[in-house]
Each structure stands twice: as structure tokens, then as C-alpha cells.
């Protein structure tokens, strides 16, 4: 390890902040959650339109970039071939982000919408409850990933920059200020946002794994205790695969995809709701596409239901904080692909896999509800326990214990792959300079693996509600939104300059 290369400010300041937050959550859980609620309301309610405008804008820019002359730019040398096959690339891209959350929410998100007054305003549960999961997890969220992925891929593989940081992607606009105070602030905000997104992800879906373990293996430990055990096991899994580099991540990603699509096939073919799943899925997809702009710009100005504040704004913020790690990873593995291939391939594999998951798993449980075979809405209204609800849904499937074990293993593998990409990316932030083919020292990677797990454990210990977990992302995403816009402008400026350089060479 070359200590002179390590950026101790970027490494130690986030460490100190996370340790301080962990102490607060452990020592003052109720007060901490109350403050989170207040801060979340301020950002989500007062500045909600800010998140919505950035989300729609980034999506439209992604379409423009893919269809323009910039789409022809190869992320690497002009004649370079892709480093990974489309399947391997797609597997790593899909699993590096929020794949575990996608699996978690696919089963039950429609139920949370079904009980919301906004659905009654629009029409029936059948017409609209399956539409919003498709909207909230598809084109705009993946646009955040893909626009930044091509910006980072361009920075790394075309411009050959040796600082793998958020601030470096802003250099075409910031110039010399990139190396000064402005650049430091951007990088500190990026690392903190990444830690916040990580904490939210682990804290939201880990209790489902704990519930499955308790149900299948009849373990009587408290859910919090099981959560912490799972976090430690998962940490060991992803640390092991991370320390084996991209090869380990690639293998784990493929295993995830096989389990994932195997689960979807079982539910579709043997769950008894095949016709309903396909027909409702197609109808919901059509409704989402027809109303896309309206859904993207709905603000509920009279605050009749607070639906966009509670859901759409939260989701855009959630994906924005994940933009610190996942796009860097996607940009890294996209070497040799054109910008057009990266964006359209990302929409095809990433959005396609996401939509299939929500259509099959969500419409399976909705089909049971609508046919009267089960009443999941009543159970959720009575208990408010989403984790027990999903276990109840799983128990309606044939060979339920086996299905639950498959879900458990798939989620652990998804988490491991996601955190591989996060730990690898954030480890790069600990270095002042890092060449394209250089990797962070394993001790630095190990340190971040441990650090990434602390805040989720603290949030789980404090028994934060779903709303307070969402607050962490909404707050962290506010400054990151500005940086995302800055990176996009910087990329467009630098790509235009690069196209001009290529044109001059050809003369």
C-alpha cells in the first residue's frame, strides 16, 4: 500500500461521521428517529419538485444521448471490443444496484399502493396498483444509472483520468477547482450519500430474510438479532468475493441471475395465476407508458394524499444516492461498448429484468387477492408488517419452504454482488490517484466493507420505521442531485470536445 496515495480526508471524515451517527442511533434511538422525520419532511415536502424535475430531465437526456452522435463514442479505443459478453455484462449491471430491493418490493409493493387514497382518485386497484411499481422502478431510476455510467466510462476509458471520483467527472466544468475545496466537498458528499443509500438498502429488506429464517428454521431469536447475524454473514460473503476481484463478482452475478429467473419461472408456471399475471402485466405496462409524463410530473399541490412525497420523490432520491457507486461500476465494466450500446443495453437488461420481476411476483399476489383466494390487503392493514405479509404470500406457492430458501439465498447473493460494486467503488475514493488498471489495496477494501455494515446495524437496532429509513436517502440525495446535473453537463461538454478532436484527426 502506498500511503502517500491515500486520501486520508475522504477516508477518515466519513468514518468519523458514520461512527458518530451509529453512537446516536444506539444511544438515542427515539430522538434520532424523530429528528430524521422532521428533516425528511422539510426536504421531501418543500423541495419535492426538485427531485421530480431532475428525474424526468435525466431520462430525457439519456434518450437524447443514445440517439445522437455521442452514442457512437466507444468507451475505450475507437476499435476496441467489449471486455465482457452481453450476458455477463448485463448480469453484473443488474445485480450491482438495487436487485435485492427489487426482489423484496416485487412481491408486495402493489399492496402499499392499494391502501393509498390516490389509487381511489385514479380508479380501481386492478387498474392502478400494479402500474406504480413499474413506474417507480423502471425508466427514470435506470436513467440515473446509465447517464452517469457513460459519463464515468468516458472519463475512465476515453480520457484515461486517474482519479476515480465524482469530482473528477466535473472537471470539464469546474476546471482547476476540481482539485480544491469544491472537489473535496463533492467527494465527501458522494461518500456520505453512498453510505446513506447502503444503510437504507440493508435496513429495508434485511428483516425479510430474518423473517424467512425464523419461519423456515423455527428460530426464536428476535428479528433484530437475526438481522445482525444476516448482515455479518452477508458481509463475509461479499468481502470474500470482492477480494477475488471482478472475476469473483462476475461469477456471483451469474449465480444471482440464475436463481432470480428460476424463481420467476416457478411463480409464473406453477403458481396458478399465469393468465392473470400476463394480462394484468401487459395492461399495467400500457397504462404506465400512456401516462408516463403525467406520472413523472404529478406533485399533488393541494396535498390531498401526499402520494408523490411519500413514494415518487423518495424513490428518485433513493436511486440518486445509489448513483455514487453503481454507475461507476457499470462504466468500468462497459469498456469497449459504445455509449448507445451501454444506454440501450442497460434499459434492455436492467429495466427489462426489473419489469419482469414486478409483473410476475406482484401480479401473482394481486391475482390471489382479486380472485378471493387470499386477503393480503386486510392482513397488511391489520398488522402493518410487510415482512410477515411477504412470507404469507410465499406460503401460497407450491413447495413453499423450498421457495422461501431460494428467495433467501437469492437475496443474500444479490446483496453480496451489490456491495461488491459499492465497496470496490468507494475504496477508489480513498486514493488521490488510481490508474485505470490499478485496484485499491485489499486492506482498504476490507475497511470499507466493515464501515458499510455499521450504519445499517445501527438503524436496525434503533428499529427505524420505513419512513425514517427513507428519510436517510431523501436528505443525502438533495446535494447529490446538483452534482448529478453538474456531471451530466460536464460529460456533454467533454464529449462534444472529443468529437471535434476526432473530426480534426480525420482531416
UniProtKB/TrEMBL annotation:
Positions in coiled-coil regions: none
Give its localization: Cell membrane
Topological relation to the membrane, as annotated: Multi-pass membrane protein
Q: Name one GO molecular function term.
A: transmembrane transporter activity
The alphabetized UniProt keywords are:
Cell membrane, Membrane, Transmembrane, Transmembrane helix, Transport
Q: Which InterPro entries match?
A: BCCT_transptr
Q: Which domain of life is it from?
A: Bacteria
Q: Which Pfam families match?
A: BCCT
List GO terms (cellular component aspect): plasma membrane
Q: Can you tell me which family this protein belongs to?
A: Belongs to the BCCT transporter (TC 2.A.15) family.
The protein here is known as BCCT family transporter
Biological source species: Agathobacter rectalis
Amino acid at each position: 500500500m502506498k500511503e502517500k496515495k491515500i486520501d486520508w480526508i475522504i477516508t477518515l471524515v466519513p468514518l468519523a461521521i458514520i461512527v458518530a451517527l451509529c453512537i446516536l442511533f444506539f444511544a438515542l434511538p427515539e430522538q434520532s428517529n424523530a429528528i430524521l422525520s422532521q428533516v425528511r419532511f422539510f426536504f421531501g415536502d418543500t423541495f419535492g419538485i426538485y427531485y421530480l424535475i431532475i428525474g424526468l430531465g435525466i431520462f430525457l437526456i439519456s434518450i437524447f444521448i443514445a440517439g445522437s452522435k455521442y452514442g457512437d463514442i466507444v468507451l475505450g479505443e475507437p476499435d476496441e471490443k467489449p471486455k465482457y459478453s452481453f450476458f455477463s455484462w448485463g448480469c453484473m449491471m443488474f445485480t450491482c444496484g438495487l436487485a435485492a430491493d427489487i426482489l423484496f418490493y416485487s412481491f408486495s409493493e402493489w399492496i402499499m399502493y392499494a391502501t393509498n387514497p390516490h389509487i381511489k382518485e385514479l380508479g380501481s386497484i386492478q387498474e392502478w396498483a400494479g402500474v406504480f411499481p413499474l413506474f417507480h422502478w423502471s425508466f427514470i431510476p435506470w436513467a440515473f444509472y446509465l447517464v452517469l455510467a457513460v459519463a464515468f466510462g468516458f472519463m475512465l476509458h476515453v480520457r484515461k483520468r486517474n482519479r476515480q471520483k465524482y469530482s473528477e467527472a466535473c472537471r470539464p466544468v469546474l476546471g482547476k477547482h476540481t482539485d480544491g475545496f469544491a472537489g473535496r466537498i463533492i467527494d465527501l458528499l458522494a461518500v456520505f450519500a453512498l453510505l446513506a443509500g447502503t444503510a437504507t438498502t440493508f435496513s429495508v429488506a434485511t428483516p425479510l430474510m430474518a423473517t424467512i429464517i425464523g419461519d423456515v428454521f423455527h428460530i426464536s431469536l428476535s428479528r433484530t438479532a437475526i438481522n445482525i447475524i444476516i448482515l455479518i454473514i452477508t458481509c463475509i460473503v461479499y468481502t470474500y468475493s470482492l477480494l477475488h476481484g471482478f472475476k469473483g463478482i462476475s461469477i456471483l452475478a451469474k449465480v444471482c441471475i440464475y436463481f432470480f429467473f428460476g424463481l420467476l419461472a416457478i411463480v409464473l408456471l406453477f403458481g396458478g395465476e399465469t393468465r392473470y399475471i400476463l394480462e394484468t402485466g401487459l395492461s399495467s405496462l400500457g397504462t404506465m407508458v400512456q401516462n408516463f409524463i403525467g406520472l413523472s410530473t404529478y406533485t399533488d399541490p393541494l396535498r390531498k394524499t401526499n402520494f408523490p412525497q411519500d413514494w415518487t420523490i423518495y424513490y428518485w432520491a433513493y436511486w440518486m444516492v445509489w448513483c455514487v457507486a453503481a454507475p461507476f461500476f457499470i462504466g468500468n465494466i462497459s469498456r469497449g461498448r459504445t455509449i448507445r450500446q451501454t444506454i440501450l443495453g442497460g434499459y434492455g437488461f436492467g429495466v427489462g429484468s426489473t419489469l419482469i420481476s414486478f409483473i410476475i411476483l406482484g401480479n401473482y399476489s394481486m391475482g390471489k387477492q382479486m380472485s378471493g383466494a387470499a386477503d393480503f390487503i386486510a392482513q397488511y392493514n391489520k398488522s402493518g408488517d410487510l415482512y410477515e405479509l411477504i412470507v404469507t404470500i410465499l406460503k401460497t406457492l407450491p413447495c413453499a419452504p423450498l421457495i422461501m430458501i431460494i428467495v433467501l439465498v437469492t437475496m443474500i447473493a444479490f446483496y453480496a454482488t451489490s456491495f461488491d460494486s459499492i465497496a470496490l467503488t468507494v475504496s477508489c475514493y480513498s486514493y488521490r490517484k488510481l490508474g485505470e488498471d490499478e485496484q485499491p489495496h485489499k486492506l482498504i477494501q476490507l475497511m470499507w466493507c466493515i464501515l458499510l455494515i455499521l450504519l445499517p446495524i445501527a438503524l436496525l437496532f434503533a428499529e427505524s420505521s420505513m419512513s425514517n429509513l427513507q428519510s436517510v436517502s431523501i436528505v443525502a440525495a438533495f446535494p447529490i442531485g446538483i452534482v448529478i446535473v453538474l456531471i451530466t453537463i460536464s460529460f456533454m461538454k467533454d464529449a462534444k470536445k472529443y468529437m471535434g478532436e476526432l473530426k480534426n484527426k480525420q482531416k
